[in-house]
Amino acid sequence: MTFDDSAGAAGPPRAARRGRLFAGPVRRSRLQRRLFAGVRLLLALVVVGGIYTAFAPGSQAEDTPKLSEAAQLGKRLYDQSCATCHGPNAQGVKDRAPSLIGVGSADVEFQVETGRMPAARPQQAQVERKQPLFTVEQAQQMGAYIQELGGGPQLPAGTNLREGGDIAKGGQLFRVNCASCHAFSTNGGALSSGKYAPSLKPATDREIYAAMLSGPQNMPVFGDNQITPQEKRDIIAYIQYQKGDQDPGGFGLGRYGPVPEALVIFLVGMVSIMFVTLWIAGKS
Amino acid sequence: MKQSKLDLAGLPAKAAGEIDDRLQVSSPLRRLLNKVFPDHWSFLLGEIALYSFIVLLLTGTFLTLWFDPSSNEVTYHGPYTPLQGIPMSRAYESALQLSFEVRGGLIMRQMHHWAALLFMAAIVVHMLRVFFTGAFRKPRELNWIIGVLLFWLGFVEGFAGYSLPDDALSGTGLRIASAIMLSIPVIGSWVTTSLFGGEFPGHEILGRLYIAHVLLVPAILLGLIAAHMGLLVKQKHTQWPGPGRSNDNVVGIRMFPGFAAKAGGFFMIVFGVIALLGGLFQINPIWLFGPYEAAVVSAASQPDWYVMFLDGSTRLMPPWEARFPLWPGHHYTLPPLFWPTVVLPGVLTMLPLFYPFIEARKFKSKASHHLLQRPRDVPTRTALGAMALAFYIVLLISGGNDVIADKFDISLNAMTWAGRVGLLVLPPLAYWITYRACLGLQQHDREVLAHGVETGIIKRLPNGAFVEVHQPLAPVDEHGHPAALPYAGWVVPKKMNRVGALVPTIKGFFFPIEEPAKPAYPSEAPVSPAPTREGITSGKQ
Q1: CA distance B120 to chain A (A)
Q2: Is A67-154's fold the same as A156-246+254-261's?
Q3: Which PROSITE patterns match (chain A) (predicted)?
Q4: Long-range CB contacts for residues B355-362, cutoff 8 Å, separation at least 24
Q5: pTM for this structure?
Q6: ipTM, 2 decimals?
Q7: Tens digit of pLDDT for each residue in A28-70?
Q8: What is the pLDDT of residues B108-164, one digit of tens each?
Q9: Does the beta-carbon distance from A283 to B81 stay under 8 Å?
Q10: Which site among B76, B280, B411 would you substitute to test the A interface, given the most A Cβ atoms closer than 10 Å to its Cβ?
Q11: Which CATH homologous superfamily contains domain A156-246+254-261?
């Protein structure tokens, strides 16, 4: 600028300047000169900026599709309640919590809807079911976020996943695949070192389905190639039927098998008969 | 010819006379009906087992009418939807039909099962009574031995019945039984294959178990029960020491009518309790277990309570495998299962069988004993019994340790280790505590006999000391010292109301048998009204 100005001030005559197209500065008014200089600068900036944007990788890289609306809401919840342990990008934190990449929305929905996550005491042998902190909708939003982050198994739509299930077939599958831990009664049972298979009494259709898909805690994964989606519906139909089924033989003693029966025969049977002996015979 | 008038009143006597003319039963029957039974509540425990056995025979006969012990495979098409179209054995199908289609079948099945549990429970409680009171001593050792055999026969009978319906639980039990038999050195595999007719499960076992369950074992049980009671009649019942009771007599009520009425009533009550259990408490819901398949092993698979202690011993046994080298490159393996399930029951059979003789030798006693001993008076025996009981209870609890661990949020490993430590620590502890408690109780008895009953009256001596006044049980001499009273082996009165110094305790279970006599206490004696006094006034009216 200053150079232009000084050159203009001490430049050659007007005619000579006209003879060469770009030989010398065309004499313009002060205002014009300033205007052109501004435009040139602007152009230069645009060119440089354009080249830069063309070659430099942008911070908003579009190699993954944009998060859906639900996933964005889920991410917000995730950043607030889960990121402390699972890491800001669900990559997991060493010695604290595992990576969530690839676990799928089924797992997230199971853990959050049953209240297991967020875990209050991650050091205990097994995270237990408790009052959920989030609504079903929020759990699904978090599930959507984790799903869009890394993929994984997903639940089918709807809340009634027992429809079209064959109870008898499901019972057969349940006894072979599930009863060894959850017991014939669906009441659950002990595993080693304080771990346990929980009771299925409070579980909804979606929770059972999600548990089979994702294998939470100590449970093995029963993927769709091991137990087909139809067989999963059969099993859910059996479990939910058994819950609603009455005990035809009277008080079912919690369906815990011979252990409570042993208690009853002594505490009810023997004790009541001993009172009778005290009543009808001499005491001392 | 005029027919003689029928004498209705004389008919029973005449009929009895006619029977006696032919069968000569009156004198043995009179002997039997006049048999005297001592009266004490603890003598009724064995009767519970007898009455449960009768209920078992009655309900069991009902069940045999429908149960079919066949291992042929059928497809279920009954009313229980969760098993519709499922292949199963005919035995399981008929057990399901018994439960859901036969009228009254389910309550009969449940009564049968509860009666079996009660039978075994009553046997064990009766056995404890006989042990702790020394009723097994000479001359009754043989009856004690029969009792021990009855327990083990009941055990086998119960296990056979548990295995019959061929549901997943009974199949799991049978699988364990076959594993136990396989663990016996050398003969194990032969025993198992001959019992199962080949490999487990085979097609033979249900039929064999069935005939053992409904004929063989019940027949032996019945024979042994008859021998048990025949010996009881022959040797007469033991009795507690007390006024008028000695080693040479039996004081009690006659069999007829007193004892027969009580026993008959008691049978009805036991029957009623079993019926209530069968109607109110669901037992062994076979439809939930499903048909037996080798791959199906449910969590919380337990045997019935009387087998549970062996399950517990198996759970507590460390996995110690013994290997004996035979020749280079070969060895014989003894599985750890052998110790808790073959050796332990063997010891637990032999020890009680010989206990009466071991004890007689230890106490150098050759006399016949017809008077019972209070447990406190034989601390060694009582403490040994407590020790055995502690051992048994640790095993029993360990048999259900997975259910306990799960329901009470305890680590299963912690339960197992607690059982292992408890099995070694608790029995000696129980011995020591019981021994000391017996000595303490003995001492207190002697103290009351020497000094009298505590009255609760505190007296202050002139020197300021406080003493409690005791009521002597015996007359006192001129110095005020009570005469020495020997211990008679029976309850020593330890409360003032037991010696008649206070209002007597009210007898009767639900309501007083008799109104207690009104005590003549000064406080209740008629008090003459106070003389009326002149009112004192100030003088100013």
Answers
A1: 10
A2: yes
A3: CYTC
A4: B355/B131, B355/B136, B355/B144, B356/B136, B356/B137, B356/B138, B356/B140, B356/B141, B356/B144, B357/B141, B359/B137, B360/B137, B360/B138
A5: 0.85
A6: 0.88
A7: 788 888 899 999 999 999 998 888 877 776 555 555 567 888 8
A8: 999 999 999 999 999 999 999 999 999 999 999 999 999 999 999 999 999 999 999
A9: no
A10: B411
A11: Cytochrome c-like domain (1.10.760.10)
